[in-house]
Predict the 3D structure of the following.
Amino acid sequence: MITGDQYRERIARLKPNVYMGGKLTDRFDPRLVGGVNVMAATYDFAFDPELEGVAVATSHLTGEKINRFTQIHRSVDDLLNKQKMTRLYCQEVGGCIQRCMGIDALNGVSVVAYEADRKYGSKYNENFINFMKRVQKEDLSLNCAQTDAKGNRPWRPHEQKDPDLYLRVVEKKADGIIVNGAKAHNSCSTYVDEIVAIPTRNMTAEEPDWAVAFAVPSDWEGVTLINAAYSPNKRKKLTAPFNTYGIGHSITVFDHVFIPWERVFLCGETELAGKLALLFALFHRHSYTGCKAAVSEIFTGATALAAEYNGIARAQHVRHKLADMIQVVDLIYAAGIAAGVNATKADSGTYIPDTNYCNAGRMLAGEAIYKEFESLAAIAGGLVATLPPEEDFYDEKTGPYLHKYIMRNPDIPAEHQHRAFRLFQDMMASAWGGHKLIDYLHGGGSPVIEKVAIYRDHNMEHSKNIVKKLGGIPFEGSTKKIDRESHAWL
Ligand SMILES: Cc1cc2nc3c(=O)[nH]c(=O)nc-3n(C[C@H](O)[C@H](O)[C@H](O)COP(=O)(O)OP(=O)(O)OC[C@H]3O[C@@H](n4cnc5c(N)ncnc54)[C@H](O)[C@@H]3O)c2cc1C
């Protein structure tokens, strides 16, 4: 395991291939530092005695202690600890911990590469195991490049006017493959060691070129990262932990990129592409039951703090709102626990969380987020939007006025009130807050996608049989069991 500083030193050695605002920039550009700080925290947490038990895991490949963000889940406990770790870390950094995506992708690869080798005698699993050993030994940070540009949505990859709108193999050579295309919305790609690319959807028999998965360093020849970066507003005097973090997302362009065979995990096996896409989504939605529980708890705490500082903590409408919010936190987290407890062991030995519970938790999270913004906005009041700039609180003339008139609950010092409302402003009335509104809805898959999966995986015949029985209508089978088909698609 390495520390945050060792991670920073390694990232500093990557070749420049990040573009922002029309310029080639380096990975420590001030707009990217917030993201780097989040990633570095995932390394330092592994040495925090308070996080012992969740932050460190054991490698099933070498038996050595590893950062849990490099683990393939081999038990129910592994899944539960991953979820708990994600929640605790997200609480610490005030949002997305970012490092989950890459390892969620590799957990998916662990299942599919094993299956491909058994079916086709390929070498993907050997490639994967070798890569995984390096990830664990060197404590590599990874992103997941899944979402394709996708072009015209109703058209399949092979139907697009431009075939590169889904990343594809354009040439197979003796020593590797050449891929061309782009992946979109790639979080943390600019400050990770390696990019893990996997398919975004199922592929049909006409689409072997698009059924491709591999890993390459983030500064690999031919890879260009066109990045958008977000951070809470920079502070001058009123420094706070929340404002030291941030995130970046890139369009990751692969311009005729050579991938050596030993880095390829899937190439042409169309029937496994969709499975890999779904497996990543599933592992990632399980991570979401940790991270989104943290985000919802932050909104709950912020709403409670706003009520206390405004002197309205005892009002009944405030308590009702808070009870609703607590319920969401608990249900999202409970869905993840249920998904872990009801996991299925794949032939590869990887534990796969329950589909229905993961999707239910992620969907609830995606849909509740606007309500959470609304609750905090409602209880905090208009100051969240109209708070004067930080400098005015320290100006000789305006500072005393602002500290006098920001006062609400007389038991709370003016600076604490200022701090709280400055944080609420960062969370909601800022570029960061606006970006988060979209992130929390679509990141990890939009709620509409979870609805499709929830409907697909529920055994509706069983539900109807329960009703038929109650109504005295004949049916086949037994209703005296809790019948679910969570992993029928596996
Ligand atoms: C902040 C953020 C971070 C992200 N990080 C990552 C990351 O690190 N790696 C990664 O791979 N992805 C990442 N994503 C991508 C995320 O998974 C996608 O945004 C999500 O899956 C939705 O895809 P989309 O944005 O292309 O939207 P679209 O698929 O374009 O969806 C837009 C709308 O069109 C509808 N639609 C789409 N196709 C059809 C169709 N055929 N018929 C009818 N309706 C359709 C959808 O239901 C939706 O309502 C991130 C996204 C965000 C916002």
Remarks:
- The domain at 278-454 is CATH 1.20.140.10 (Butyryl-CoA Dehydrogenase, subunit A; domain 3).
- The first helix runs from residue 4 to 12.
